[in-house]
Amino acid sequence: MAVVVASGLARKEPTAPMTPAARMFSGSVGKVLVATVALQLAEEHKLDLDAPISDAIGELAWFDRLPSGEALTARQLLNHTSGLPEYFDQPGAIAKLRAAPQVEWTVEDRLAFVFDRPVHFAPGQGWSYADTNYIVLGAVLEAAAGKSFYDLARARLIEPLGLARTEAAVTPKLVGLVSGYTAPGRPFPFPAEVAVDGVFCADPQFEWTGGGFVSNAGDLATFAAALWGSDTLLPAARRAEMTAGVTAKLTPGERYGLGCTVRELRSRETEPASGTPAAEVAGAASAAERAIGHSGWFPGYLTDVAWYEQAGLAVALQVNTDQGIGLPQLHSFLDRAAAAMAAAAGAAPADRQ
């Protein structure tokens, strides 16, 4: 069973209501698709997550300028333990986008901003989130599979799951894209209304495997349920590998796996009643709901998606503004929505979206 709810406005002036079919950029939620393809290739023995990535892309002209390139593995890219700096934080990156917002970026264009720069730490010796990891990983996946990443995602994920409203963000004009509103002072040089009549103000292709998709909440929940709630995309052992998680600088208690975050939540179902013996209270406190998912930001849009393991429930949220909303608020909304839906569903089957 799938339930998709829309609220608010798809555009402020002239006003237009939000609809369940509305599409928005999903930002870094796209990293989950990238990681899923990587784990599928690993399962097929086309990619070794712990081998040096130089085995796959060492012959590329720019590889020798990639910081710590010879020491990096795909696993370190997947869980952000590579030490690579964020390319969009480097001098000149935003200026390049400002000067030519409609120009397509190559892999080398993106990575050029980190070439020859120092790493934050030696590979595997820390954690630092950076889209750079997934740009390098995109090159690794294409080399391992011999196909473009978007072809891989379409053939392996989008078409098999019937994600009709999910599409590679490779053009400014996207059918069904609602207006997005970005906060003043954001680092990207975009107007307050970043998309008008389904046309984004720049070529979104610059994001690529750092995110790289436009989607809607219904598709994202369907994907989350198929990925973490079944063997449809990955066998159980690979899902366990994906969600093992390392300590990350995110919200308290949140860990980062291979392209996903893992949050341990107190289960409402095990909340002890007043007067419960202390031993039973301790047991109840240790029983937790695990929320597996990812959040995403793209100028003017916010996305959060999670699979609630105990409840067997996938919940996704998209908002067409990035003003005044942070990651804790998104997580809180998802958690409360999941708890309410699980309570309303009672003992319904464990494949709800």
Q: How would the blueprint of this fold be written?
A:
Elements: E1 9-11, E2 16-17, E3 24-25, H1 30-43, H2 54-57, H3 74-78, H4 93-99, H5 107-111, H6 131-145, H7 149-161, E4 167-168, E5 195-196, E6 199-200, E7 213-215, H8 217-228, H9 236-242, E8 246-247, E9 254-256, E10 261-266, H10 278-286, E11 288-298, E12 301-308, E13 313-319, H11 327-345
Antiparallel strand pairs: 1-2, 3-7, 4-7, 5-6, 8-9, 9-10, 10-11, 11-12, 12-13
In a few lines, what is going on in this structure?
The protein has 11 helices and 13 strands. By secondary structure, it is an alpha+beta fold.
Helix % is 25-40%
Please identify, by name, the CATH architecture: 3-Layer(aba) Sandwich
Widest sheet: strand ordering: 8-9-10-11-12-13
CATH superfamily membership? DD-peptidase/beta-lactamase superfamily
Query: Beta-sheet strand percentage?
Result: 15-25%
Looking at the structure, what is the overall shape?
Answer: globular
Averaging pLDDT over every residue, what do you get? 90
Write down the Rg: 20 Å
Task: Quote the CATH topology.
Answer: Beta-lactamase
Which class do the helix and strand fractions yield? Answer: alpha+beta
Order of helices and strands: EEEHHHHHHHEEEEHHEEEHEEEH
Model description:
The model is unreliable at 268-287 and 347-352 (pLDDT under 50). It is built from 11 helices and 13 strands. By secondary structure, the protein is of the alpha+beta class. The strands form 4 sheets. The chain has a 6-stranded antiparallel β-sheet with strand order 8-9-10-11-12-13, sandwiched between helices. The chain has helices at 30-43, 54-57, 74-78, 93-99, 107-111, 131-145, 149-161, 217-228, 236-242, 278-286, 327-345; strands at 9-11, 16-17, 24-25, 167-168, 195-196, 199-200, 213-215, 246-247, 254-256, 261-266, 288-298, 301-308, 313-319. It has one domain: Beta-lactamase (3-Layer(aba) Sandwich), CATH 3.40.710. Helix 1 packs parallel to helix 6 (131-145). A hairpin with a 2-residue loop joins strand 11 and strand 12.
